[in-house]
């Protein structure tokens, strides 16, 4: 193990560049998957004829597929049909679709957990169903689902490493490249990558615990 060589500034900068790529992909995927998940989860909860069952089928199908398969399909299979995305956006789209389906289920469960008495009181006060959904159910549901949603975002950050299959130059891809230059760099590079992942994910886990504590 060559810690001194592995942690030379050029090598550390190379790993940090990969980590920055990881954060960019994760950040965009978090935003897009949140929007997608809220929309799909709300549609499932609303039980709109025809549309809700179709959305439920799509969400359940995506949730039961491996994320690696989705990224592989978007980054490698789709280009064979002429639909080519840059590697960066292929990773973002793949993660957003998969995590969006996961968040949709969290949203549906969160909305379903809202006390029926509050819903009935809102309707009795003259609010329409859509007004009740917008002003009562969604705010209460989103507050309750925030801890599991943050936990899902933690999983999303770790899942960015699967984009190595389409050669996205994220953290684990750069660890792989650096390790390939010298076997003595393998363990030091993995330790450094682990510390970076741990720092970000542990910080988010503290946020999730704080949000959960507020619910009790």
Describe, in plain words, how this protein is organized in 3D:
This protein is mainly alpha-helical. The chain is built from 9 helices and no strands. Helix 4 (67-77) runs antiparallel to helix 5. It is elongated and about 70 Å long.
How is this fold's topology laid out?
Elements: H1 3-6, H2 9-46, H3 51-63, H4 67-77, H5 87-112, H6 116-124, H7 129-159, H8 171-181, H9 186-215
Number of helices: 9
* Low-confidence runs of at least 5 consecutive residues: none
Radius of gyration: 21 Å
Categorize the overall geometry.
Answer: elongated
Distance between the termini: 48 Å
| Largest sheet composition | none
Instruction: List SSEs in N-to-C order.
Output: HHHHHHHHH
The helix-and-strand class reads: mainly alpha
Secondary structure: helix percent = over 70%
Mean pLDDT: 89
Summed up:
With 216 residues, this protein is an all-alpha fold. Helices cover 80% and strands 0% of the residues.
Annotation keywords:
216 residues, mainly alpha, 9 helices, 80% helix
């Amino acid at each position: 193990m060559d810690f001194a060589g592995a942690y030379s500034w050029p090598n550390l900068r190379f790993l940090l560049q990969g980590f920055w790529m990881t954060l960019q992909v994760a950040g965009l995927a978090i935003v897009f998957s949140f929007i997608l998940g809220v929309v799909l989860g709300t549609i499932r909860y609303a039980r709109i004829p025809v549309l809700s069952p179709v959305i439920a089928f799509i969400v359940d199908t995506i949730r039961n597929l491996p994320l690696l398969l989705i990224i592989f399909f978007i980054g490698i299979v789709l280009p064979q049909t002429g639909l080519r995305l840059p590697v960066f956006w292929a990773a973002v789209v793949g993660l957003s679709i998969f995590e969006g389906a996961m968040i949709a289920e969290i949203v549906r469960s969160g909305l379903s957990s809202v006390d029926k008495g509050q819903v009935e009181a809102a309707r009795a006060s003259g609010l329409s169903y859509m007004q009740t959904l917008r002003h009562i159910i969604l705010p209460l549901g989103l507050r309750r689902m925030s801890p599991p949603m943050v936990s899902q975002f933690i999983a999303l950050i770790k899942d960015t490493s699967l984009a190595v299959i389409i050669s996205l130059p994220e953290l684990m891809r750069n660890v792989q490249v650096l390790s390939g230059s010298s076997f003595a760099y393998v363990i030091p590079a993995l330790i450094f990558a682990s510390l970076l992942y741990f720092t970000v994910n542990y910080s988010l886990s503290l946020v999730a615990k704080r949000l959960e504590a507020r619910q009790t």
